[in-house]
Amino acid sequence: MSEEESVDHYDASYSIFSSDLYATIRKEAFGEDMGQNGWLTVDEQDDFISKLNIGSGDTLWDIACGSGGVHF
Length: 72
What we know:
The chain has helices at residues 9-14, 20-30, 42-52. It is mostly helical. The chain has one domain (1-66). The longest helix is centred in the middle third of the chain and has 11 residues, at 20-30. The protein is flat, with a radius of gyration of 16 Å.
């Protein structure tokens, strides 16, 4: 591959997650759509986050953990 060529790995992996079809599937599977790309429910995510014991002044780095999706 030459220096001018590049591959957009993010869009190749995650661009379909923003489609209406995937949003509908997430709503059917989880009861709501939070943009997840795994099998984690909102309740499971909230439970996991509560165990991190982070507060409003803390910083949490989410590095290479998927498409993002969840925002607080």
